[in-house]
Amino acid sequence: MTSGTGTSARRHVRHIDIYCPNDLAHWSQRLGISDAQLRQTVKLVGTRAATVAAHHGISL
């Protein structure tokens, strides 16, 4: 995930960028799913982290 302040930093807390290797690794590990599963879920339900987690039955 990128570091910084302001809106862009908050965006990364709420949204998953599947094209950013750091985001992909972070969220895959946090959700306990593979990178491929994460990519597929984001394409299916969108980039919002809470929605992706809910799709997998996980509460953030």
Provide a descriptive summary of the structure in words:
- Pfam families: DUF3606 (PF12244).
- InterPro entries: DUF3606.
- This is DUF3606 domain-containing protein.
- α2 (21-31) packs across α3 (35-45).
- The chain has four helices and no strands.
- It has 60 residues and is an all-alpha fold.
- 62% of the residues lie in helices and 0% in strands.
- It has one domain (7-55).
- The model is unreliable at 1-7 (pLDDT under 50).
- It is globular, with a radius of gyration of 11 Å.
- It has helices spanning 7-14, 21-31, 35-45, 49-55.
Which characteristics define this entry?
DUF3606 domain-containing protein, 4 helices, mainly alpha, single chain, disordered N terminus, 60 residues, DUF3606
Set out the fold topology.
Elements: H1 7-14, H2 21-31, H3 35-45, H4 49-55
Helix pairs in contact: 2-3
Count the strands? 0
End-to-end separation:
17 Å
In round numbers, the mean pLDDT is: 85
One letter per element, helices H and strands E, the order comes to: HHHH
Overall geometry: globular
Round the Cα radius of gyration to an integer and report it: 11 Å
What composes the largest sheet?
Answer: none
> What helical percentage do the residues reach?
55-70%
| Beta fraction | under 5%
Q: Number of helix segments?
A: 4
Q: Compute the number of structural domains.
A: 1
Helix-strand makeup class: mainly alpha
Low-confidence blocks of residues: 1-7
